Amino acid sequence: MDMSLKSVLLSFFLSQALFLCGLPFFLKLSLYLNPLAILVVWFCILMLVSFAVLYCRREAITVQRFFWQAAFVGYSTSLLVLLFFRPQGQVYSYNMTPFSTILAYASNELDGLVSFYNLSANVGLFIPFGLYLLSREVKEVSTLTKFLYPFIMISIIEISQFILRRGSLDVDDLILNMLGVYLGYLLYPLFAKVVKILPVNGK
């Protein structure tokens, strides 16, 4: 069954209510991130709630591959803005010791909101990359490709942050980002039940 008007309205109102409830906390993110982070949070909540509504109601949405690719490009661009354009006055740092930053966040050594956002965002924001890679029009994506594509991409981002002194270079970011991509791989069967991406020929 295709997405009904009831599901559209339910998804919209539930997501907006959830976003408004968390808005006081989300606004704090703009203190050390690009204000675009608020828009990204809003979009992610809308997509997650819409997916949950469609899945629970056993409905689906059909998307032309062009629009799916365009949405992915827009999402990737927004993510790069978040990573490379942040408020002035932040201290640049780097960490090459695996799990040290993750343990610092988990042990509440830093602000609770900051810790939660960094852990969840570094994983959650990269789930779409796993979904996108498996959604391509190829017969099968090899295990090596599943690892190398995101690993190279994320490594380039981290190295660029080191060279340009934007954000921070952290091996734990690489670990968390890769975890997000692999979580996308695991979630793809559920994603494919809800989102039907048409091939290029539209058939």
Describe this structure in words.
- The protein has 203 residues and is mainly alpha-helical.
- It has one domain.
- It is built from eight helices and four strands; from the N terminus they run H-H-E-H-E-H-H-H-H-E-H-E.
- It starts with a helix and ends in a 5-residue tail after the last strand.
Features:
203 residues; two-stranded parallel ribbon; 4 strands
Quickly describe the structure:
By secondary structure, the protein is mostly helical. The protein has helices at residues 5-29, 36-56, 65-84, 100-106, 112-124, 127-135, 143-164, 171-194, and strands at 61-64, 93-95, 168-170, 195-198.
Parts with pLDDT < 50 across at least 5 consecutive residues: none
Helix content: 55-70%
Q: Average pLDDT, to the nearest integer?
A: 86
Number of structural domains? 1
Give the spatial strand order of the biggest sheet: 1-4
In total, the number of strands is 4
Question: Could you tell me the radius of gyration in angstroms?
Answer: 18 Å
Tell me the overall shape.
globular
- N→C terminal distance: 18 Å
What's the number of helices?
8
Percentage of residues in strands? 5-15%
Taken in chain order, the helices and strands follow as: HHEHEHHHHEHE
Most strands sheet: 2 strands, parallel
Main structural class: mainly alpha
